[in-house]
Write a structure and sequence with these properties.
mainly alpha; 10 helices; globular
């Protein structure tokens, strides 16, 4: 539904998935994933208060201290609400998460590092996430796109970049998924 821009249906589907996860008492990881997806959707739709409500109601299965995905999402929600101090606390929690996460948890930690201005550390964490992804399902477009974002932030597309190219990283992401939105937006940003 979200891919079709049917946001209300996407919200209903997300709410139903989370409710089903609660009622059937599935694994906490599934419930946490449903909660993250619904909160992410609410945030994307400009409904930060609703996103915060979801995160607060599902706090027992979310862990901003050990899962950078939860810390990064909470940081973004609180920042959107103008709660800078609380957002900063969530960001700090995301920065302190361990390497013992899936690739998407490591990517979220890299985003926390980038937001705190630690670009070199963010590059290192993305490299670790790429190695973790290779051990699983293989290369992930989100990781190439994140590297492209970092290259663009650090070097733009200038001669001094010494062989680093945001464009090449975005194109790598698109070679895996030709409709991967962050890579498409990254290329647009490069060429505007």
């Amino acid at each position: 539904a979200l891919d079709e821009s049917d946001y209300e249906r996407a919200r209903r589907d997300g709410e139903r998935a989370l409710k089903d996860a609660q009622e059937t008492q599935v694994d906490d990881a599934v419930r946490a994933r449903c909660a993250r997806m619904l909160a992410e959707l609410e945030l994307e739709l400009g409904r930060a208060l609703e996103a915060l409500r979801v995160l607060d109601e599902q706090a027992e299965v979310l862990s901003i201290g050990t899962d950078a995905r939860d810390a990064w999402l909470r940081y973004r929600v609180l920042l959107e609400l103008g709660l800078r101090d609380a957002a900063g606390e969530s960001l700090e929690r995301g920065l302190s998460t361990s390497n013992d996460q899936d690739w998407d948890g490591l990517l979220a930690r890299a985003w926390c590092e980038r937001a705190s201005g630690e670009l070199e550390r963010s590059f290192e964490t993305i490299a670790l996430a790429q190695a973790t992804a290779k051990q699983g399902d293989g290369p992930e477009p989100a990781l190439f796109s994140a590297v492209g974002d970092l290259y663009f932030e650090a070097h733009r597309e200038v001669e001094e970049a010494k062989g680093y190219s945001a464009s090449k990283e975005y194109k790598r992401a698109l070679s895996i998924n030709e409709r991967f939105e962050p890579a498409l937006l990254g290329l647009f940003e490069l060429h505007r």
